[in-house]
Amino acid sequence: VLRLLEAQLQEQRREHEEEMEAMRNQMDLMQEELENQQQAFLQTLQLSPEVQVELGLQQEITRLTNENLDLKELLEKLEKNEKKLKKQLKIYMKKVQDFEASQTMVPEEWRRRERNMQVAVQRKEKDFQGMLEYYKEDEPLLIKNLIT
Fold this sequence. Notes:
The chain is an all-alpha fold. It is flat and about 105 Å long. It is built from 4 helices and no strands.
């Protein structure tokens, strides 16, 4: 058991060290990126106001262009989804029409059976008040159920 626990501890330690190394590498990359951005910012501050405005406009145009491309991709996805849903709707509408057509072609015999079944259901829906009607053979079972 002790060896197993030691092995698990060493495995966790190794994973922790790997995570720490990955974090350090990521932090170094972020520091380099920050330094590059600071240098670019300092260089833009040294430029004339007209050039600064021009660079700002170019950055804004680039940002808007990227945003526009993203929106176009989203629009294309939505259009594809719309076409797919329209196809599904057509299929389901056809199925419904086929089902309705098959229902109208039901033989007269089925219709009579449906009417008889409806009448039977109507007869069963009586509102009883007072005494309970039961068979004599069911009396012990009825008493048992009443007691429980």
